[in-house]
Amino acid sequence: MRSRIIYVIGFMGSGKSTAGKRLAASLGWEFIDLDRVIEEKAGKKIPQIFLQDGEVAFRKAESEALKGINRQNGAVVATGGGTPCHDDNMDFMLEHGLTVYLKMTPDQLTHRLLESSTARPLIQNITDEDLPAFIGKALMTRESFYNRAEIIIQGINLDINRLLTVLKEKM
Ligand code: S3P
């Protein structure tokens, strides 16, 4: 098997953790949520890291956490929305595993983020009215990274069995 690691990438709120958990369960692999790895290592939550140490420190910790994952055993990694867009993280993921981009439209993301209760430092000061414009703009920049993924699949109503079939062809 070429790849023992799958990286799930996509914008905040695109369902990376949910899809990652389901994939890991189907494959009998470990599930790793990169944000949780960063939090455990830092001993504090993501919003605190942003607040106390700043985004640059967060991005450094994120890149280190990504590269520190044990790639010998099978694992599905749910990355943060910004992971592929910083440092050489996207190159690293393309080199070391299979990348899956959960694609959603700005409208879909807006609805999901408005419903979400997760604390997200990048959008905490953005009003509900300004959120669609923020997402549209950020997605435009970020998609140049996300679109490099080996597999690009619609995140809404994700058919996990279809995704597994596509993944297994590439493993
Ligand atoms: C971020 C997304 C977050 C988290 C951090 C930064 C981003 O993860 O890593 O708040 O830059 O898009 P989720 O995509 O799981 O919300």
What does this protein look like?
- The chain is of the alpha/beta class and 171 residues long.
- It has one domain: P-loop containing nucleotide triphosphate hydrolases (Rossmann fold), CATH 3.40.50.300.
- 51% of the residues lie in helices and 13% in strands.
- It contains eight helices and five strands; from the N terminus they run βαβαααβαβααβα.
- It has helices at residues 16-27, 34-42, 46-53, 55-67, 89-96, 106-115, 131-146, 160-170; strands at 5-9, 30-33, 75-78, 98-103, 151-154.
- The chain has a five-stranded parallel beta sheet, with helices on both faces.
- Helix 3 crosses helix 4 (55-67).
- The radius of gyration is 15 Å and the shape is globular.
- The termini are close together.
- The relative contact order is 0.21.
- The model has no long low-confidence stretch (mean pLDDT 96).
